[in-house]
Amino acid sequence: MEMESNIILKNQKLGAFDILRKALGITTTNINFFLFTIFASLPLFCFLVYNQPFLQEFQDQVLEILKHPAFVYYFEEDTFKWSLQYDATPGYDVTPEWNKRFPGELIQQALLYLVPLHLLELITALAIAVLASKIYKEERPMTLKEMVNNQPFDKITLKAFLITAVYVLVLSTCSDILGSVWSAASYSFVFRYFNREIFLSLWCCIASLAMLTTYLAWNVIWNMSIVISLLEGIHGIKAFGLVTYLSTGNGWGGFLLMFIFFAWEVTLRLPCLYFGCKGRGNGMFVAQSILLCFGNVFELVVFVIYFHDCKNRVSEKLLMIKANKAGDQSCV
């Protein structure tokens, strides 16, 4: 009984901000790990520096199209549908931009988001996750020689990681598509039955919050499943099931952590949207890319610690159940 109490005392529960504090300590105070993460994040950093100007230009174009007075909504009473049409007002000829440039840039950004960005993030996770787990469990810094010579992957672990990565990529893509379809269906419903702007605004807010909440909750599962594949060698549906089992009772902590990283990324992109950063040589893109890479590494370390915390909570529950059963038997 005393042994179980000591284990429970050692594996104290961590709150979301405790996890952030521990992850910050591992990432910033361990100089060797910090240098290793810089080296591992170089491919992702180069891609972000290359892609950020194109992404900014695309976002600016979307904003201009959405607020352009040349585009107006018309309600077709016969079919009960709303359609976006071009108002041929002098001075607002943006149709060529809409027809020629926008679709191609949309496809380009989608392909860059699906393949290189996700692939480079996964490569970074493959290089860092196991090292972060060892540093956290052993509670000691590692030398650069130990990190470079470390060979944590066998065929089973690598296979599990690749399978889970494919699952995550497919599910994240499907969620984006389903989210867009659901948004369009929701807006069509409001346009059809509530021909008032206030209802549309209210429904847009509700739909956006619902999609954001669902998306963040799914991201917790996806990030945890990647960590589990690397640390436990479990892949696919089994990894997702283990995430659900381990995070039961601690789901709010994972959601809060995911929301913090979502807010971090949005905050980093707001200055360029507001000030309109232009040009490939703009220093704002370099600074933004550095902070995004740091956020990517920090998020990975956070979810490694979150995984261990969830695992410790489950172990604590099992020990408590075992201790209670032993106590009941001794009483009999």
| Contiguous uncertain segments of 5+ residues | 1-9, 69-94
H and E string: HHHEEHHHHHHH
Structural class: mainly alpha
What is the count of helical runs?
10
Largest pleated sheet? 2 strands, antiparallel
Give the amount of beta strand, in percent.
under 5%
The overall strand count is 2
Total of domains: 1
Strand order of the largest sheet: 1-2
Range of helix content: over 70%
Mean pLDDT: 75
Describe this structure in words.
The protein is mainly alpha-helical and 332 residues long. Helix content is 81%, strand content 4%. It is built from ten helices and two strands. The protein has helices at 2-10, 16-28, 31-67, 95-138, 144-149, 155-193, 197-232, 236-246, 251-275, 283-331; strands at residues 71-76, 81-86. The chain has a two-stranded antiparallel sheet. A hairpin with a 4-residue loop joins strand 1 and strand 2. Helix 2 packs across helix 10 (283-331) and helix 9 (251-275) runs antiparallel to helix 10. Mean pLDDT is 75; it is low at 1-9 and 69-94.
Concise account of the structure shown:
The protein is mainly alpha-helical and 332 residues long.
Topology of this structure?
Elements (H helix, E strand, L loop, with lengths): L1 H9 L5 H13 L2 H37 L3 E6 L4 E6 L8 H44 L5 H6 L5 H39 L3 H36 L3 H11 L4 H25 L7 H49 L1
Antiparallel strand pairs: 1-2
What distinguishing features does this structure have?
single chain, 332 residues, mainly alpha, two-stranded antiparallel sheet, 10 helices, 4% strand, disordered N terminus
